[in-house]
Amino acid sequence: MSGCEARDAKKLVRSPSGLRMVPEHRSARSPFGLDEPPWVPDKECPRCMQCDTKFDFITRKHHCRRCGKCFCDKCCSKKVPLPRMCFVDPVRQCAECALISQKETEFYDKQLKVLMNGATFFVTLGTSEKSELMVCRLSNNQRYLVLDGDSHYEIEIIQISTVQILTEGFTPGGGNTRAIGMILQYKVPGSEELVQMKFTASEDFSCNKKLSASWLAAMHKVSKGGKTSRRL
């Protein structure tokens, strides 16, 4: 077991919003996670914050689990998975938040799984002329990019500053391109030093090309904002 996965144990907790399966150690939290929002107090919400319907004994108040705002049942009726808050079951969300959560489902169901399954690349460190064949994957707790070969690296996702995807086959119309590698820069913990790594897909097998391209596409998705814990 690698050092970055030694504290992956989880526990089941109950919050006002529902059951959550969260890491036992806060330091093992996913960088893609979101904290539960504070709920708008009932006394501060006499009307639905979407349609302005007045609350009474018949029209009840419901809080969106993603934004914490107060709505009537009509405006907050959808129950949608919210993995970024570690909910076990789908939870009640307003229409706007439900749409965001539904869009994020693909990231969790597809891209994150692709990254955790890993792919093989030739990795070049800094300005070195030598490259090393390494298996690259996202750790189970989603906090680290793990590189295994003759060498071993664990790069914390939140320390990655830039990701540049390398492509080939560019045409004037922008078609027929495919990802063949990436250049990644990250900060060394405790300093402002930037380290650069170049990843180049192995050309040994056509199936590896497809796997590598899928992995690079998922990594590009992360670099566009997933690691900020705000947007995916």
TrEMBL record:
Residues 42-97 form the FYVE-type domain. InterPro entries: FYVE-type_Zinc_Finger, ZFYVE21_C, ZFYVE21_C_sf, Znf_FYVE, Znf_FYVE-rel, Znf_FYVE_PHD, Znf_RING/FYVE/PHD. PROSITE patterns: ZF_FYVE. It holds the Pfam family FYVE. Keywords: Metal-binding, Zinc, Zinc-finger. GO terms for molecular function: zinc ion binding. Coiled coil: none annotated. Gene3D superfamilies: Zinc finger FYVE domain-containing protein 21, C-terminal (2.30.29.160), Zinc/RING finger domain, C3HC4 (zinc finger) (3.30.40.10). The keyword Plastid does not apply. PANTHER family: ARRESTIN DOMAIN-CONTAINING PROTEIN D, ZINC FINGER FYVE DOMAIN-CONTAINING PROTEIN 21. This is ZFY21 protein.
